[in-house]
Amino acid sequence: MEQFGYDKLNDVGLQVDNEVRQQLNESSKWAKFISITMFSFCGVMLLVGVVASTAITGVLKKVLGYDAFGYADTGIIIGIILIVVAIVAIVYYFLYNFSAKIKAALVSEDNEKLNAGISSLKIFFIISAIGSIITLLASVYNLLKTQF
Amino acid sequence: MDQLEEKSIFNLELAEDTKTNLRGLTQWLNISAIVGFISLGVTILSAIYTLINASKYGTTGTSSLFSTFISGGISLWINLTLYNAAKSINTGIANEDQGVFGYGLSRLATYFKIIGIIAIILLIIFALALLIVAVAGVAGGFR
Predict the structure, then answer these.
(1) Count of structural domains, chain A
(2) Assembly ipTM
(3) B 92-131 residues with CB below 8 A of A?
(4) Which residues in chain B show pLDDT less than 70?
């Protein structure tokens, strides 16, 4: 008798129902905001780096007490800023991509776009996690160096 | 918003490769959260050493302790949210449990919301700092 009571709807797998749709939409909106904020921050850093590179070099010379980079110091400072800005922009491009593709997937009900969006988020978290591990190792090294 | 949320009762079903991608994502969410917890531990340890050193020189280091306490609390909250998101999404996929899966995604949305709000606060502080520097510059110019 139990066979007749079996609900066929239980056979349906995981779905993008209204609850999931709402949460993905919320994540997508905030992810877009965060990535645009980071892109703006990169722009400001680049501007400040180029405009104030001579001043930054002067401050570094005062702090370090010697001419750290020799004659090519301003160029090196701009180069370092460019590399940092490029890395940050690439990382947050993946977050922006996640946002755009998830939104498109929800509008067009397209599984491929949903998959591509989740892939972008995965890449974002892979790069972030590797960055965090490197930062963690550096801070552990500093802690050990200063204390022992 | 309404256009996105009010679709037909025939929902988009998650394909197998999407589930595989989500499982991969949860692994990295887990790693990020665990690295965050370890970083928090290192920060606390570092703050304790700073306090011990400060007491040797006769200072208390209360402001440093306070800021570590606040940033540590926020960091714990963010990483717990990320860890819960990873755990619930993974469990939801493994058991085909729509409720747990939805809860995991809601934790992920909360994670992004917290980071977004922190970004707004930092933007306000940055704008205020710029304003103060500009006002100070203009005031200095009139002297």
Answers:
(1) 1
(2) 0.85
(3) 92-93, 96, 98, 101-102, 105-106, 108-109, 112-113, 115-116, 119, 123
(4) 1-11, 58-61, 141-143
Q: What is the pLDDT of residue A147?
A: 72
Is the pLDDT at A44 greater than 80? The verdict is: yes
What domain range includes position A87?
17-147
CB B115 within 8 A of CB B81: no
Domain boundaries, chain B: 15-108
pLDDT, tens digit, 9 for 90 and up, residues A76-132: 878 888 999 999 999 999 999 999 999 999 999 898 999 999 999 999 999 999 999
Token pair of B48 as six digits: 């304790």
Is residue A11 in a domain?
Answer: no
Closest CA to A106 of A95, A118, A94, A119: A118
pLDDT given for residue A7 in this prediction: 47
Residue A89 lies in a domain: yes
DSSP A72: G
Interface of A with B in 85-144 (CB under 8 A): 103, 105-107, 109, 111, 114-115, 118-119, 121-122, 125-126, 128-129, 132-133, 135-136, 139-140, 143
